[in-house]
Amino acid sequence: MRSWRDKQIELDGKLTRVWLRRSRFLAREFSWLSDDKQSMFSPASSAISSRILPTVFLQHKADDWVLMSCDVQDAFLTVRQKEPTMVIAKDAAGREQAYALGRVLPGQRAGSLLWNEAITNHLKDVLDMEECTIYPSMLKTKDNKLFILLHVDDFLVTGHVDMVEKRLIPALKSSYKISDSIIRQMGEELTFLKRSHVLLNDELMLIKPHHTHISHLKEIVSVHPKAYPKKTPSHPSIDDEDDTVLLSAEMMAKYRSAVGTLLYLAADLPHCQHCIRFLATKMTAATEHCWQVLKHLVLYLSGTQDVCLSLNFKGQQRGVFHDYTSVEHAIVEVYTDADWASSKGDRRSISSCAIFYGGCLLHTASRTQKIVSLSSAESEMYAAASGACDAVLIIGILTWMFDSFFQMCLYLDSAAARGIINRRGVGKVRHLSCRCLCLQAGMADGSMIVSPISGLKNPADIGTKRLNDQRMRALMFLLGMFDSMNNCHVGEVEARAFLQQQDLKQAMSSLRRLMKSDVDASGALQLMMFMNALSVARGMDDSATASNHVGWGWWFGYLLQIMTLVACMIAGMVFLVRGLARQQQRAQIHVENVVEAPLAAVDGPAVGRGRRRVHARNIVGQMVQV
């Protein structure tokens, strides 16, 4: 097979990007020729673990840790055949010739398995490494100072600089021909599985997909060079019933090729996973409507090629919205959400989850539920169980890496689903028994805690439905999406405005509840101080943000802060006066009841009772005025 590869090679002492011609032998083995072979599975990494090692690198970077990617050249040819293997090849003249293979060729059914066994045994013998039982493609040393993620012949490594440079690299070069890239300090870059990892500064790392993927998608759907990019990834009619005609065989091939590329990019595009999920479910029978949805998504991606994912590790006890200061162990946050019966065709719900560790986004997913949920609580339970299963695997890997306890904090915006998880037994939802009992068992043994979150602040909401531009950008900021062109986080302004709006709504809701209830002067003063503190805090954030911009934004922020402060003080004083007036009215009614009760008891005929009652009221009124 011959192909062209985009590579970086060292020319004149510096890395230069070039195109290299690649030629290699391939074998094609058919299962019907050797149907007796069993257990052909070879361990390989997946999207759920691709960001664990970069996050661990950021966590230990201050301890002289590095991040390295390594590629073994002609990996299969270094492995000897375990069984006698014959191949038949044709030369240029069309003559067939039989050969006996002494080495493994790419294309053999057992090639990946034999290579994995060879490299794993080599690392165990030379570096005394051990495999992760639940995730065999991950290896570590016994002192927990070196971790390796295997994906066939590509490695992603993080560990102490001495372990990587003085032990691992010499051990690999002694038996294989490798090419490696190492990140030691800010500004350096490496590539792993066609994703570039750039250390922007000492705390922030960017993960960018390869630019050729978007170009390939634009070529498939024939996007015009002057086409205007879309603002959101999902088509407005994505959830409507589809009655359009099926695509032709030629268009179906293009559709499947494009969706295959999107599925590879989905891990790096959490804001597009809802649309990619819809397109993937239509691969067997795509229609004209599906093609329009695909074209809409490609137009959106063409205008956001500089948007990528960023990792910023804040600490083991720090989360997205707050810190866990009351615990000593590490916390893994899991946010789940569901859109009940969103599909108008089959009324199946959509589940979404977002998993964070130390403020870094480790994994996101958007899935169509396999059955039709009978209630919103049931759909939320399915979403919670799906997200918890992904988190269990991640926590298992982290626990194996550091030999320490990691606790899952599951956030749901459904009170009904939280009630099902917090109680014991399945109750009336017997058809959810497996999921209920699994989550309840996690609550019982302390490995998981369930907490509420507002549906408007839930990051997992981005994968459940089509959102407007501002709402989507605000959630992208919570996920850590970064604009490499403008060198800033995506949706920071929208997220700040959104959180400020939420805090103001909560404050006004508290104000309404207190105005309807009985409150004294001290309660009114406390509420007024709370509103003032809220306005000052938000005003400081606004002024700090506005100071980074040029023009009239800074004085407008201060003016808005002063106006908000004055409005809160006026509202607090009005509320105080109303509270005092209500107290006075309640005291008057109480005195009337006290005076009227004895009078009613000693009164004689009902004729003179009203005259004496009026006289008593006059006396009470004079007492209240005094």
Please give a structural write-up:
A hairpin with a 6-residue loop joins strand 6 and strand 7. The longest helix has 50 residues. The chain has 15 helices and 21 strands. The C terminus is likely disordered. It is 42% helix and 22% strand.
Task: Provide a concise account of the structure shown.
By secondary structure, this protein is of the alpha+beta class. The chain contains 15 helices and 21 strands.
List the helices and strands and how they pair.
Elements: E1 2-11, E2 14-23, H1 52-59, E3 65-72, E4 80-90, E5 96-103, H2 111-127, E6 129-131, E7 138-141, E8 146-151, E9 154-160, H3 161-173, E10 178-183, E11 189-192, E12 195-199, E13 205-209, H4 212-221, H5 249-265, H6 273-280, H7 288-303, E14 307-311, E15 330-339, E16 350-357, E17 360-368, H8 376-402, E18 406-412, H9 415-422, H10 433-444, E19 448-452, H11 469-479, E20 481-483, E21 488-489, H12 492-516, H13 521-546, H14 553-602, H15 609-625
Parallel strand pairs: 15-18, 18-19
Antiparallel strand pairs: 1-2, 3-9, 3-10, 4-5, 6-7, 7-8, 8-9, 11-12, 12-13, 13-14, 14-20, 15-16, 16-17, 20-21
Helix pairs in contact: 4-5, 4-7, 5-6, 8-9, 8-10, 11-12, 12-13, 13-14, 14-15
Given the helix and strand composition, which structural class is it? alpha+beta
- Provide the low-confidence segments as ranges: 537-554, 597-609, 612-617, 619-626
Based on CA inertia axes, which overall geometry fits? globular
Count of DSSP helices?
15
Quaternary class: single chain
Percentage of residues in helical conformation? 40-55%
**Strands across the major sheet, in which order?**
6-7-8-9-3-10
Tally of strands: 21
Query: How large is the radius of gyration?
Result: 33 Å
Return the average pLDDT rounded to an integer: 83
Largest sheet: 6 strands, antiparallel
Span from first to last CA? 104 Å
- Percent of residues in β-strands: 15-25%
